[in-house]
Amino acid sequence: MLRTQWDPFQDLPSAQDEMAQMSPMLAHALGLHAQQGSGRPMAWAPALDISERKDAYLVTVELPGVEADDLEITMEDGLLTIQGERHFAHDASEQQFHRVERRYGAFRRSITLPAQVQAEQIEASFDNGVLQILVPKMEEAKPKRIQVRPGPAEVLAASSGEDTTPS
Questions:
Q1: What are the percentages of helix, strand and coil residues in the chain, rounded to 5?
Q2: Are strands 71-76 and 130-136 parallel, antiparallel or unpaired?
Q3: Best-predicted range by mean pLDDT (4-13, 27-36, 38-47, 74-83)
Q4: What proportion of the chain, given as a percentage, has pLDDT over 90?
Q5: Widest distance between CA atoms in the chain
Q6: In what order do the strands lie in the sheet containing 105-112?
Q7: Dihedral sign (CA 137, 140, 141, 142)
Q8: Do 127 and 109 form a contact (C-beta atoms < 8 A)?
């Protein structure tokens, strides 16, 4: 009698497909949606971490198999968007696949950042399939001491070059 060991992950892809059919919104949020009619994944969502330092936010994204040239990062209205594509690099005519679980195709992740960031100072680096985006924070507003000058207000207006003569 042939005995096989039970693999709890064997049925995971079919469970994901069932979940995608039952709740399209949940499946989309989890990156499980498939292109209608093709049965192959349309998009995927790479894992990311967001951490905060005293001076900046750090966004770290896992992108194995993605080339730096296939990435686009934009910042608009407080929304940091990372998009790109991971290509299926195997020639299917030479191989017969028994299982394909890795996701390929286009992806897009958008993160809302606080308004107090320096958008023009954002830096990104990509090494060994890991993208790191450093988003500097604005310096905290420090109280500014205002010096009081003696004399009437007209003196202040005159020193700024305004004409203070009554009309």
A1: 20, 30, 50
A2: unpaired
A3: 74-83
A4: 38
A5: 111
A6: 71-76, 79-86, 105-112
A7: negative
A8: no
What is the distance between the alpha carbons of residues 128 and 49, in angstroms, rounded to a whole number?
A: 16
pTM > 0.85: no
129: amino acid identity, one letter = G
Note the pLDDT of residue 47. Answer: 93
At residue 44, the 3 state secondary structure works out as coil
CA atoms within 13 A on the CB side of 128: 0
Question: How far is 69 from 74, CA to CA, in rounded Å?
Answer: 14
Q: pLDDT band for position 87 (50/70/90)?
A: confident
Give kind and range of the element (H or E) at residue 110: strand 105-112
pLDDT bin (cut points 50, 70, 90) of residue 38 is: very low
Burial class for 94, CB neighbours closer than 10 Å (0-12, 13-18, 19+): exposed
61 pLDDT higher than 80:
yes
d(CA 123, CA 118): 10
Evaluate whether 19 touches 34 at the Cβ level (below 8 Å): no
Per DSSP, 117 falls in state B
